[in-house]
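Sanity check. The docking grid for nickel (II) ion depends on where the pocket ends up, so I'm generating a full predicted complex first rather than guessing from homology. Inputs follow.
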Amino acid sequence: MSKTTRFGISIDSELLKKFDKRNKLKGYLNRSEAIRDLIRDCLVTEQWEKNEGEMVGVVSLVFDHHRLDLPNKLTEEQHKYHSIIISSLHIHLDKHNCLEVLLLRGEGEKIRKLAENLISHKGVKHGRLSLTTTGEDIS
Ligand code: NI
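Predicted complex below; grid placement will be based on this.
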């Protein structure tokens, strides 16, 4: 871990009050950790925008498994991108609905493409890609 630096910020009092209120609601014990999280989130978002290096993504899909051939189509799509799928989880939510969660690691563009291909399938009721990081280069 690198050394810690302290720095001061000039900020509008009302803005700071809102920030403190928000942090309290989110469970932060102090401003520093809230600010560190915002900085990290900003850096990870920029990493995704620049499409630099290895990224991590989590895809969730909710779908009706009775839908004609949908489970097969989703599996087929995943086989095309097998090299970036670290793990997958399938939960039978009820008699009809399934939740599939995929953990992806690799080139950002490939992660996005696979997520889009899966989410856009007819019969997928809800799909989401959460973009995150391998944690390297972020302290
Ligand atoms: Ni199922």
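Relevant for the grid: The chain has a mean pLDDT of 94.
Also worth noting: The CA atoms of residues 79 and 85 lie 9 Å apart.
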